[in-house]
Design brief:
Blueprint: H1 15-19, E1 25-29, E2 35-39, H2 49-53, E3 67-73, H3 76-81, H4 87-96, E4 101-107, E5 113-118, H5 140-149, E6 154-157, H6 160-170, E7 177-182, H7 190-204, E8 208-215, E9 224-229, E10 233-237, H8 242-248, E11 271-275, H9 279-282, E12 293-297, H10 300-309, E13 313-318, H11 320-323, H12 340-345, H13 352-359, H14 364-379
Parallel strand pairs: 4-6, 6-7, 7-11
Antiparallel strand pairs: 1-2, 3-12, 3-13, 4-5, 8-9, 9-10, 11-12
Helix pairs in contact: 8-13
The protein binds flavin-adenine dinucleotide (FAD) and iron/sulfur cluster (SF4) (3 copies).
Flavin-adenine dinucleotide binds next to helix 4, strand 4 and strand 11.
Length: about 375
């Protein structure tokens, strides 16, 4: 028995792994580096729980009226360290002040990305900032349930499929559970990330201390990728960074991200956070290029949280449809790069820079210049 007949639909949320009463499921990496459930037939008692909690098989339709805000944190320091307007930190602080627990995506010592929890404000930095790699959920759904059963407040944050996976796993409403997802472009493979880290290590030669995918030294829109070492640093505009190039050209994402069931207007989470792309057209007075968040409130719990942080943010309500106009990932999956199979077929035998350069398209400027030259020659 498989949890899902069609592997390509599995988002890797780990709900099946967390629910199995016989520990018959292990999450194993495939050749592309993404984790999928594998059932040990000797241990399985065919109780069917794994299928019951799978959010792909039990995709819930939500009826709600989302409200959208443009917002950013008044604390300039937190805003600078956050990917967009630093709203996540404020929501998390509100739950921590209730003696709550926050779940989110963090780096481990090797800069692999995994889900974990924290119980104090000092550790919030672990979750701050987008990490463009699929985060491994591990047993965090079970841990979240334990805290909820012990009457603790819990804020669970992650991609839309991770939040739906949690809700599906719990199969019960908890008054003290709050959830926050994001508008999600998709998640690149941890194996591709590993290759990139190895490539950087070879070039940069240092003791790696910190990584930021969204360094704002050049502003929010022209963000940099930054690797901080003991004695040097790698900092590069995202358009020139090879890893972000692979991410944004949709060559390294999980299969399920190209046909995502969780991108929709009506969401199960209490709050959805995103970059407010296009803010310069909607509310130019809220665009100082330091990062503006799009905050979508999906439920009464979400509304209550936003009320609590209102004195710590600059905000304005905006028309929902207008707010998501420049953020297609709210509702639509990206198309699969036509070279994706070749990219993954060669991942083990090509150097990272050669691999990305060979299978992604060249700089737009060069492409446009070549197009112009071709047109001139044709006319002549
Ligand atoms: C993989 C990915 C794709 C995204 N795609 C888009 C997009 O297409 N359009 C858009 O507008 N915004 C996208 N975002 C969201 C955006 O980058 C910001 O995370 C969001 O605006 C919140 O910003 P903030 O300043 O409030 O908080 P921040 O401090 O920047 O956000 C931290 C939050 O992000 C979560 N997080 C970080 N990395 C991961 C991860 N790998 N998996 C799950 N959760 C993670 C943390 O748990 C925490 O909740 C994406 C984020 C990620 C991680
Ligand atoms: S059917 Fe039950 S025992 Fe078997 S893998 Fe699924 S949850 Fe585990
Ligand atoms: S529960 Fe999650 S990890 Fe398990 S099969 Fe379904 S989508 Fe995949
Ligand atoms: S695009 Fe969809 S399937 Fe992929 S990580 Fe985001 S929510 Fe999950």
């Amino acid at each position: 028995m498989e949890v899902l007949e069609d592997k390509s639909t599995c988002c890797g949320c780990h709900a099946c792994y967390n629910v199995c009463p016989k520990d018959a499921i292990t999450m194993k990496e495939d050749e592309k580096g993404f984790k999928y459930p594998v059932i040990d037939k000797e241990k399985c008692i065919e109780c069917g729980l794994c299928r019951k909690v799978c959010p792909v098989l039990n995709n819930e339709k939500v009826e709600n009226k989302p409200t959208a805000y443009s917002a950013y944190n008044k604390d300039e320091n937190v805003r600078k360290k956050s990917s967009s307007g630093g709203i996540f930190t404020l929501i998390a602080e509100e739950i921590l002040e209730r003696d709550g627990v926050i779940f989110g995506a963090s780096f481990d010592e090797e800069f692999n990305v995994y889900h974990t929890y924290i119980e104090n404000k000092k550790e919030l930095g672990k979750f701050r900032g987008s990490k463009y790699v699929q985060s491994s959920i591990g047993d965090t759904y079970k841990k979240a349930r334990e805290f909820l059963e012990n009457n603790r407040y819990v804020l669970f944050t992650g991609t839309p499929c991770q939040v739906e996976g949690l809700k599906s796993f719990l199969r019960k409403n908890y008054d003290k559970l709050y959830t926050q997802d994001i508008i999600c472009h998709g998640v690149p493979s941890p194996k591709v990330w590993e290759k990139y880290k190895e490539y950087r290590k070879e070039i940069d030669k240092g003791n790696l201390q910190e990584i930021s995918f969204r360094n704002k030294d050049n502003g929010w829109k022209e963000y940099n990728v930054n690797f901080e070492y003991d004695n040097n640093k790698y900092i590069n505009n995202h358009n020139k960074d090879l890893y972000i190039k692979a991410f944004l050209q949709d060559i390294a994402l999980r299969d399920s991200c190209y046909n995502c069931l969780f991108k929709k207007k009506n969401r199960i989470s209490d709050i959805t956070l995103a970059d407010f792309w296009g803010i310069e057209n909607v509310l130019p007075e809220m665009d100082d290029n330091k990062g503006t968040s799009l905050v979508i409130v999906n439920s009464n719990k979400g509304k209550e949280l936003i009320e609590k942080i209102k004195n710590k943010i600059i905000y304005q309500e905006v028309n929902f449809e207008e707010a998501i106009k420049c953020n297609p990932s709210m509702t639509k999956s990206v198309g699969m790069n036509k070279n994706r199979d070749k990219f993954f077929d060669n991942i083990d035998n090509m150097k990272f820079d050669k691999l990305v350069k060979k299978y992604t398209s060249h700089n737009n400027i060069i492409k446009r210049a070549l197009g112009k030259i071709k047109r001139i020659i044709k006319r002549k």
